[in-house]
Every structure is written in structure tokens, then in C-alpha cells.
Amino acid sequence: MRKDGHVTGNMIEVATEVPIILDNSMGLTDEQMDAALGRWIDFSKEYGVCAVFDAGIAGAPKFHEKIYRRLKELDEMGKLPVYVDGCLVINTAKDAEEGLKELKRMRREYNTEHLKVHTVKIFMDGTQKIHTAGMVTPYVDIKTLGPTAFTPEEFADFLKKINEEGLDVHLHTVGERASRTVLDGVELARKELGDKFHVRVTSAHLEIQDDADLDRFAKLGVFANFTPHWHAGTTKESSAWLGAERAAKQFRCRTIWDTGAQVAWSSDNINFGDFTTWNPYLGMEIGMTRRSTEKTRVPEWSRCETIFPPADERMTIEEMLIGFTINGAKQLGIEDHKGSITAGKDADFLVFDKNLLTAEQEGFSCNKPEEVYFGGKKM
């Protein structure tokens, strides 16, 4: 802060800066919101994104609900062709009881054809770069473990309440201890509830996994959700805080897939920009190659030509398509009407001018459907 009281500096963590921005956005008019939402809807129609999970914004519940309110109104006017699966964000175990009450209210209020809100979103930990991702083994530079929002016992207790209400839970889990806490909590809840346990639990990002936990997603029925456009070296400098051995074993999606776990993909970005990283075909390309070249549809400054280790974690196009379609639908609980071209489903399908199964991997991000159909209607 300068002597005149003017605050200067840089914010490097989104959770800090977003609430400041969005608190000043509460005065947006319906027309202004429609202009922004319209850009996203147009993108979705152009690229064939028929359903999304909105993972919420930490620290901005009023603005978050303001968006849902407008999406509901747009859907009632027949102007929302994209299915939106929404959530309520809580940050700590002490917020769980009030959060559950609020989510039940939102489930009642936001329940139209293309908008449902039935999921708790929890930031179980933070990020690697600022050492807030929860670790099993300490960071090599500052010797700390990083925090988690719940203990396994607290999370198991919360899961039992979620289960009773017929709700689901989606968790930000970057570090190895964050996802272990989720797995331990699910294991505890399943031991007590047995076949009565029905919560869809999704553990997202999964940048770092301890070897002992890799097969537990399949055993416990936890969805593993990765953000594949990160797999080209987003955390390539992480050996400075993880050490060389752990840094060389990040984003082990292939290993978890091969255990039989339900694996789905996501884009994870709240920056509208030019929607570069919202592009599912970018996620497919980098999921297959674990690098970005001059053919990849990304800014030049973000390219990483070297294959990000482990190289054997690269996926096939069939697996990328499954993760973005039917597995994503299963994660959201909408597989009975979305996720595959099957009689009785919603007839969401895309027509391409080439065979995606044989298309070149490098440059796959430049693909776009020739025709897009949502609910059998050409967009």
C-alpha cells in the first residue's frame, strides 16, 4: 500500500481476486448478463458442447446464484439449449451444515429442463505453486504438507448427510493427500452405509497421486476427473517444490483408467477470453500427446513441445471421446438421456467432415463439427 492509501501489487491466486471482481458485478443488468452468457452459448453450439458441469466460484455465492437465476429465466424462455449441472460451493467443514441447507433450497428453485443444481463443490485443497495443495510427502523446499478442508472422518460424516438428501459432491483435489482424504472418507462412509451409499463423488484435477491410492478410485466408485489441457506441462517447473521423482509422475490418468475407474475430462476455466481452453478438442489433443506444438490451437507463449512425463500416460482418441461423452454423463447422473447416441436419449450429436478416430493427433484441437444437433434440433 502506498502512503496515499492506494493499494498496488499482484494477485497470483484466483480465489483471492475473483470475489473482488465479482462483488462489483452484482449490478450487471439482464442485458449485460445475456451478452456474456450468449457468447458462451454460441461457443457451445459452435463446438458441440451440449452439457456442462458448472464447478462454481469460491467466495462469490451471491454472484453465482445471480447467474443461475438468469439461466433459469433464459431456459424458461427457450433460450438455453445447453444443459447446465450446477453446484453450491463450500470451503470448510464448518460451512457444511449451512451449505447443505442452501443446496437443498437451490435444488428446488433451479430445476428446469436444462438447469439442475444438486451438487456440493468442495475445495479440498489449493494449488501447487503457492504450496496449498495437500501432500502426503512434504514439499521439498518449505517442508510443509499443505492443508485439506476436511479430515477423512469429517468428510465421511458429511457424505452420510449428502447421501440421505440424494445429493452429489464434486471436489477440487490437486495434491495427493487431498484425494486420499476423499478416498478415505468414501471408504469410511461405505463401510457404514453399505449398499445404501448412492452419492456420486467426483475427485477433480488429480495432479499428484500417491502410488498406494491409484487403484482405489475403481474400488470405491469415485469418479476421477482430469483437466487434460494441463497435461502439456502446466506444472513443468514443479520439481522445485515436489522434487524430481514426484514431479515426473503427475497426471497419471492412464494408470487410473487402466484400473477400471470411471475417468472423465474437463476444461476447468472461468476466463471467457477467446474460449481457447474451453475447447474439448484441445483437451483431446493434449490428452493424447501430452505436449503442444505449432499445430496446437493455443497461444504461442503457452506451447510445450516436449512430451510431459510420464509419456506412457497418454490416452487414445477412443478414450478421450468416452471421457468427454458417456463417462461425463455418468459423472453428472444424466446417462439415461445424454452421453451416447442411443434410442430414447436426447439426440445430441455432431457431424464432422473427417473421421476423428483416424485424425492426426497433433492439430486435433483445430477440429470443429460441421453440424451440431441438440435435442434433435440443428443449431
Describe the SSE topology.
Blueprint: H1 14-23, H2 30-47, E1 51-53, H3 61-76, E2 83-90, H4 96-109, E3 111-112, E4 115-123, H5 152-165, E5 168-173, H6 176-193, E6 201-205, H7 216-220, E7 223-226, H8 239-242, H9 244-247, H10 253-258, E8 263-265, H11 280-289, H12 317-324, H13 326-332, E9 349-351, E10 371-374, E11 377-378
Parallel strand pairs: 1-2, 2-4, 4-5, 5-6, 6-7, 7-8
Antiparallel strand pairs: 3-4, 9-10, 10-11
Helix pairs in contact: 4-5, 5-6, 11-12, 12-13
- The helix content, as a percent range, equals 25-40%
The best one-word shape is globular
Class from helix and strand fractions: alpha/beta
End-to-end Cα distance = 51 Å
User: Roughly what fraction of the amino acids lie in strands?
Assistant: 5-15%
Please report the number of helical segments: 13
Order of helices and strands: HHEHEHEEHEHEHEHHHEHHHEEE
Low-confidence stretches: none
Mean pLDDT: 92
Give the radius of gyration. Answer: 20 Å
Strand count: 11
Biggest sheet architecture = 8 strands, mixed
Record keyword descriptors for this entry.
alpha/beta, about 375 residues
Structure in words:
By secondary structure, the protein is an alpha/beta fold. 35% of the residues lie in helices and 13% in strands. It is built from 13 helices and 11 strands. Strands 1, 2, 3, 4, 5, 6, 7 and 8 form an 8-stranded mixed sheet that branches. Helix 4 runs parallel beside helix 5 (152-165). The radius of gyration is 20 Å and the shape is globular. The chain starts with 13 loop residues before the first helix and ends with a strand. The mean pLDDT is 92.
